[in-house]
Design a protein that fits this description.
The protein has 106 residues and is mainly α. It has a single domain, classed as Cytochrome c-like domain (Cytochrome Bc1 Complex, Chain D, domain 2, Orthogonal Bundle).
Length: 106
């Protein structure tokens, strides 16, 4: 059990470092499109099709679009009632999801 925690902690640190490393990279239309697909398949059920006014989850329109690390940590580790997605989504997928969240849906 302890070994699993150590492995997970190491993975988490590397994932956050990879995400931080790409933080200044420009967002591409391909990333936004990929993020939209990831959102539709994994997030829309709770957060709504257009990230607005869901009945049972936080309204993503209220989350600052300039706090990338908060977004990455919330998606990776979960927050409040949202489960962690770090064991489901790869860092590149979380980056694409960020691209869609921050710049895709207006």
């Amino acid at each position: 059990m302890r070994r699993n925690r150590v492995v997970f902690a190491a993975w988490l640190v590397l994932s956050c470092a990879a995400a931080a490393q790409n933080a200044d990279a420009p967002v591409t239309p391909e990333q936004i499109k990929a993020g939209a697909e990831i959102y539709a398949g994994n997030c829309a059920t709770c957060h709504g099709n257009r990230m607005k006014n869901p009945e049972w989850a936080i309204d993503l329109a209220t989350i600052p679009k300039d706090d990338r690390m908060r977004f990455v940590q919330s998606v990776t580790n979960g927050k409040n009632g949202m489960p962690p997605w770090g064991d489901v989504l790869k860092p590149a997928e979380i980056n694409a999801l960020w691209a869609y969240f921050s710049q895709g849906e207006k």
